[in-house]
């Protein structure tokens, strides 16, 4: 009785058809919106459409500037290397020939294949280049533009190659933990402790920049290359430098998107979250009036907030790569010695610094702060478990310093930065007002902790060794 | 129809033999040449066993083919023969394979001993390991002793650390300690023909001698979790001088305090 005979025949045909139809469909991945965005009333999320105007809400404002994973958008204001450079139209002979002007610092590209028009009559057009003359910066286009571009129109060269290849690399190497949107909630994230980083606060813990600055590109590159020991973040040393640069840019792109979303929602959540509106309705306001108020806000104040937020992001992330943002000790490391370590231990136990409060008397990460119950500053409700919590609402376990595992790096500079700038996003505060030589004493003490003969031995006064051995050999 | 199936089942073993024949030169068995002398010996063992097995394969497939063909060409009225087995046949096909296996076991003892038994390791490796490779999900953490010092099982304050890249000297036998921080992993270097499971709680010394400077792959060969497929690293084999310079750089980077390097540069100018 074979598959193609008798009663099986029809079933077989149907089965084949079915399998063919439900093969791999076109899977569209999408960026998620944060929980806080989704806690706004729907008009704030989706905007208000009236006969007079279409007022974009939070979601549209984000999508317009960052796009979707399939259709990424490069917001040129942001300091991300999208691949390609920004330039202007110097002059256009006709609709097929354009002379480009690059800024003083910009490098004129050797090869040019694509021009995207950003402003002017041709805004939104993507033109492919038939021939490119580097000397005169003249591009001859394969097909005519709908209108002749004017001098001063802004263009972007290329089609965001770095962003696109970053998306591919990120999907392969990072998204299964960090999630498509960089929300730290990929498919494997639920099995990991500590959880993978949620980039959307724009905060990275292990940096060498000061406490007010964002992570620099160098910091992120270091993290990718060396991994984070003691966590599930592996080293990507075997990726090429170009790949690492691409990934760093894409991660910054995701971080800026998340932060942009967060700040926009902050503008609205006070008055227009579901909870807030419920409260207002309860105290007598009319919901229709609230929506009208929202409409006013979206028309007048919100666009300004969008611009200011974008500017703020651009400024903060650009500043992170400057020398001023770095933690630079004013003196070289004080050489390691028993005296320095003892001084470090004194400072560790001192009332002013009070390291033992979190890290415990012997540096085992079991100080009294680990048992308190504290409130979530955003919701003002108690966290379900005791202990300190970080900005991502995870339990923030103070480091057990006796293990010798230094997540942010074991160089003296790294430990100095941890103390001086604190660990951003976590409850390790910044001790930037502590004299730098004191910080070096503490660094020496910490580096010696894994090798203490017994807990607390560093703090004890040096013992005079007995004149003779107590046990005969 | 029966003849078709008989020929069908005779055809594929022929394909298998052909593939086996052409595989060696196309690097289907191994990625390129073995890069160590021990690797060549292990490869030799592989081909020896392959050869023995191929002979057995040909024998059994001929027997199978004969049986199939006879069955296909027998007339339909032939009556079945009832057999109670053949004692001598049973003896032959137990004793002969036993001897073959015994031969293989004894033949490879030398290689196995030199490869795996510490007392047979080369003399030069007895002075101590050059590095400790700690496998963890999903990377390879390397720990070196400070230049000029002996490696200790427990970390020393002046040890040097790196990740996913182990630098070793060329031209002499070296050994490293293989450990794992969490689950079982396996150190596998295809070009060196070297494989060793990393077992939690054990410190396993692994030795090799790489004559040619270059980079060699390390891949994890024990399913260790969702990142097993990308748990890769590399061995960088270089001359003693080059290695010394590397450790200098590593030491300097590990002692980076944000100030001294710049001061030294400024003074040099």
Overall 3D form of chain B:
elongated
Strand order of the largest sheet of chain A: 3-4-7-6-5-8
Question: In whole angstroms, how far apart are the ends of chain A?
Answer: 89 Å
Query: How many structural domains in the coordinates of chain A?
Result: 3
- The residue-averaged pLDDT of chain A reads 88
Count of domains of chain B: 2
Description:
The complex is a heterodimer of chains A (473) and B (269). Chain A has helices at 8-21, 35-38, 42-46, 58-66, 161-173, 175-178, 217-226, 241-272, 274-282, 287-319, 338-349, 356-359, 412-421, 436-448, and strands spanning 48-49, 54-55, 86-94, 97-101, 114-117, 126-133, 138-141, 154-157. Chain A has 473 residues and is α+β, with helices and mostly antiparallel strands. In chain A, the strands form 2 sheets. Chain A has a 6-stranded antiparallel beta barrel. In chain A, strands 1-2 form a two-stranded antiparallel sheet. The longest helix of chain A is centred in the middle third of the chain and has 33 residues, at 287-319. Helix content of chain B is 42%, strand content 21%. Chain B has 6 helices and 10 strands. The interface between A and B is medium-sized, with 31 and 26 residues.
Structure, briefly:
The complex is a heterodimer of chains A (473) and B (269). With 473 residues, chain A is α+β, with helices and mostly antiparallel strands.
């Amino acid at each position: 009785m074979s598959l193609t005979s008798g009663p099986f025949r029809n079933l077989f045909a149907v089965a084949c058809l079915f399998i063919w139809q439900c093969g791999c469909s076109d899977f569209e991945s999408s960026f998620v919106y944060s929980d806080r965005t989704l806690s706004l009333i729907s008009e704030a999320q989706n905007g208000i459409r009236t006969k007079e105007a279409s007022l974009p809400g939070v979601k549209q404002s984000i999508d317009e500037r960052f796009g979707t994973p399939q259709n990424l958008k490069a917001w040129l204001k942001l300091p991300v290397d999208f691949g390609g450079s920004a330039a202007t139209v110097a002059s256009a002979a006709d609709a097929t020939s354009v002379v480009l002007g690059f800024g003083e610092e910009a490098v004129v590209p050797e090869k040019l294949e694509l021009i995207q028009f950003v402003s002017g009559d041709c805004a939104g057009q993507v033109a492919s280049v038939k021939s490119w003359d580097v000397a005169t910066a003249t591009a001859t286009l394969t097909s005519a533009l709908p209108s002749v571009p004017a001098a001063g129109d802004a263009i972007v060269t290329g089609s965001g190659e770095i962003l696109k290849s970053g998306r591919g690399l990120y999907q392969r190497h990072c998204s299964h933990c960090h999630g498509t949107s960089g929300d730290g909630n990929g498919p494997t994230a639920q099995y990991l402790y500590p959880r993978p980083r949620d980039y959307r606060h724009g905060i990275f813990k292990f940096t060498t920049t000061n406490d007010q600055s964002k992570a620099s590109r160098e910091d992120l590159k270091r993290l990718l290359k060396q991994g984070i020991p003691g966590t599930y973040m592996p080293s990507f040393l075997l990726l090429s430098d170009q790949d690492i640069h691409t990934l760093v840019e894409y991660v910054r792109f995701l971080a800026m998107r998340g932060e942009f979303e967060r700040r926009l929602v902050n503008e609205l959540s006070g008055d227009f979250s579901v909870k807030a509106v419920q409260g207002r309705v309860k105290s007598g306001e009319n919901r229709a009036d609230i929506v009208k108020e929202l409409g006013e806000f979206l028309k007048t104040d919100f666009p300004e907030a969008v611009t200011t937020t974008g500017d703020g992001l651009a400024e903060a992330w650009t500043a992170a790569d400057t020398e001023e943002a770095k933690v630079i000790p004013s003196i070289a490391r004080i050489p390691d010695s028993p005296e320095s370590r003892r001084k470090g231990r004194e400072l560790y136990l001192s009332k002013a610094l009070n390291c033992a409060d979190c890290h415990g008397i012997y540096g085992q990460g079991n100080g009294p702060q680990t048992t308190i119950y504290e409130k979530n500053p955003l919701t003002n409700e108690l966290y379900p478990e005791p202990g300190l919590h970080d900005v991502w609402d995870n339990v923030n376990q103070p480091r057990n310093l006796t293990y010798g595992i230094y997540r942010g790096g074991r160089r003296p500079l790294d430990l100095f930065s941890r103390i001086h700038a604190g660990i951003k996003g976590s409850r390790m505060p910044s001790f930037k007002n502590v004299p730098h030589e004191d910080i070096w004493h503490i660094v020496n003490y910490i580096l010696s902790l894994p090798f203490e003969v017994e807990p607390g031995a560093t703090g004890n006064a040096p013992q005079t060794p007995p004149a003779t051995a107590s046990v005969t050999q | 129809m029966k003849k078709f199936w008989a020929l069908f089942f005779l055809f594929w073993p022929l394909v298998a033999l052909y593939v086996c024949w052409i595989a060696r030169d196309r690097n289907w068995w191994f990625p390129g040449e073995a890069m160590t002398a021990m690797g060549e010996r292990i490869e030799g063992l592989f081909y020896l066993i392959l050869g023995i097995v191929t002979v057995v394969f040909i024998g059994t497939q001929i027997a199978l083919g004969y049986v199939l063909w006879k069955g296909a060409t027998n007339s339909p009225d032939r009556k079945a023969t009832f057999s109670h087995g053949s004692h001598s046949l049973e003896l032959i096909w137990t004793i002969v394979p036993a001897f073959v296996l015994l031969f293989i076991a004894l033949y490879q003892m030398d290689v196995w001993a030199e490869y795996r038994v510490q007392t047979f390791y080369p003399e030069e490796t007895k002075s101590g390991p050059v590095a400790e490779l700690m496998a963890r999900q999903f990377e390879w953490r390397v720990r070196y002793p400070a230049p000029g010092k002996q490696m200790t099982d427990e970390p020393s304050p002046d040890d040097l650390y790196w990740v996913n890249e182990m630098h070793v000297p060329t031209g002499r036998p070296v050994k490293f300690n293989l450990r794992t921080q969490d689950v079982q992993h396996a150190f596998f270097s295809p070009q060196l023909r070297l494989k060793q499971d990393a077992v939690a709680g054990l410190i396993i010394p692994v030795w090799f001698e790489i004559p040619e400077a270059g980079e060699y792959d390390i891949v994890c060969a024990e399913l260790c979790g969702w990142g097993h497929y990308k748990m890769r690293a590399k061995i960088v084999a270089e001359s003693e001088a080059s290695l010394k310079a590397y450790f200098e750089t590593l030491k300097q980077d590990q002692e980076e305090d944000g100030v001294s390097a710049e001061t030294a540069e400024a003074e040099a100018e």
